[in-house]
Write a structure and sequence with these properties.
This protein has about 350 residues and is α/β, with parallel strands linked by helices. The chain folds into 2 domains: about 5-180, Beta Polymerase, domain 2 (2-Layer Sandwich), CATH 3.30.460.10; about 215-345, no CATH class. It is about 55% helix and about 10% strand. The chain is built from 12 helices and 8 strands. The chain has helices at about 5-35, 50-60, 85-95, 140-155, 165-205, 215-220, 225-235, 250-255, 260-285, 295-305, 310-325, 325-340; strands at about 40-50, 75-80, 100, 105, 120-125, 135-140, 240, 290. The strands form 2 sheets. Strands 1, 2, 3, 4, 5 and 6 form a 6-stranded mixed sheet that branches. Strands 7-8 form a two-stranded parallel ribbon. Strand 5 (about 120-125) and strand 6 (about 135-140) form a beta hairpin. The chain is elongated. The model has no long low-confidence stretch (mean pLDDT about 90).
Length: about 350
């Protein structure tokens, strides 16, 4: 190896501990910044180019570099996102953190070749403060990353001539993956819009127009729809309400046949008295002073099942749905069915 390349390699060896520290600190800074911005990424990787890799690069292009600082990808980071539009969000975060060497940065997404899908990543060359050195940060989607790896493994674009039929199939696959990438982002945007519309409908009180699903039920729970009933039940023993997750009741209300939030709201209106009677029967002679916030929806569902003739089987199904199947669920269901004769709402 000529003296010039050896000098660059020796500079690499001398600065390797510093470069590894810069790579790790940059990784941590970027990780913290993305998390604070609410950006969920598939992977955040970093590396310092190995001496073997650097030697190979110098052998091919050694005359291009005057010193180690001229090589922009000695330190490299890669951010892999789930969605196309998140690449731009990550890029914005990188721009706020570092001074970008725009002349050497490359937006490969502007390429329009039909076989270039896997190379549509965004490459920023970032200046490392107070050093004269630079590093590369690549940003791409999961599918773009997978395609790039597949191309590398198959030897595509490796200089070896590939039969035309394989080139055609690879190009078709590239187009399919690009379409999938676009569709994922489109679906996410549509779901975000749907959630926004659902929250607006729930807030406006137009519950009959809101389908019952995970997003709508979560928004419904934000309104504390069982709060009044829970407080009424708690007043029996002057108890405190301990908040617990109520999302499991989504499956129960669906099993009861509810298709909209309006139907859930109607159950609350029509069966709150029955739920109160069941609760007072159960806790009236106890000294319980802490009650779970699930007591209201649980007894609402029990009152509905009993009144609709679902019997012990219906109550057991509810407990199985909430807590998982067990013999105790059947025992409790049978007990509630026996007690139901003492509930005034059952005779109304």
């Amino acid at each position: 190896m000529d003296p010039h390349r050896e000098a660059i390699l020796q500079e690499y060896r001398d600065k390797l501990p510093w470069m590894e520290e810069v790579a790790q600190k940059t990784h941590e800074t970027l990780k913290t910044t993305l998390a604070a911005a609410g950006l969920l990424v598939a992977a955040l990787e970093y590396r310092v180019k190995s001496e073997e890799s650097l030697a190979g690069k110098l052998e091919l292009k050694g005359g291009k570099y005057k010193s180690l600082a001229d090589i922009t990808d000695i330190i490299g980071l890669r951010v892999i996102t789930f969605y196309i539009d998140d690449v731009d969000k990550v890029a914005s975060a990188v721009e706020r953190l570092f001074e970008i060497d725009w002349e050497n940065s490359v937006d490969k997404r502007k390429a329009h070749e039909i076989d270039s899908f896997g190379y549509l990543s965004l490459h920023y060359i970032c200046k490392i403060p107070d050093s004269g050195f630079r590093m590369e940060i690549q940003m791409r989607t999961v599918l773009q990353h997978a395609w790039a790896n597949m191309n590398h493994d198959t030897g595509y674009k490796s200089g070896v001539e590939v039969p035309r039929r394989y080139l055609r199939n690879l190009s078709r696959l590239a187009g399919m993956l690009e379409l999938v990438d676009d569709e994922f982002s489109k679906i996410r945007a549509e779901l975000t819009d749907y959630r926004r519309r659902v929250r607006a409908l729930v807030a406006s009180g137009n519950l009959d127009d809101v389908p019952l699903d995970g997003d709508s039920f979560r928004s419904f729970l934000d309104l504390n729809p069982f709060g009044r009933l829970n407080q009424r039940i708690a007043s029996v023993n002057q108890a405190e309400i301990h908040n617990v997750p109520l999302m499991p009741y989504l499956a129960v209300f669906k099993a009861l046949g509810c298709k909209t939030l309006g139907e859930v709201s109607n159950i609350i209106k029509e069966y709150s008295e029955g739920a109160y009677q069941i609760a007072t029967y159960q806790i009236g002679l106890t000294d319980l002073d802490i009650l779970a916030s699930s007591i209201g929806p649980q007894d609402l569902c029990i009152a509905y099942i009993l009144k609709k003739g679902g019997g012990s089987a219906g109550i057991k199904f509810m407990f199985d749905t909430l807590n998982g199947p067990s013999e105790s669920n059947e025992i409790m269901a049978n007990l509630l069915l026996e007690q139901s004769n003492d509930f005034p709402f059952m005779n109304q």
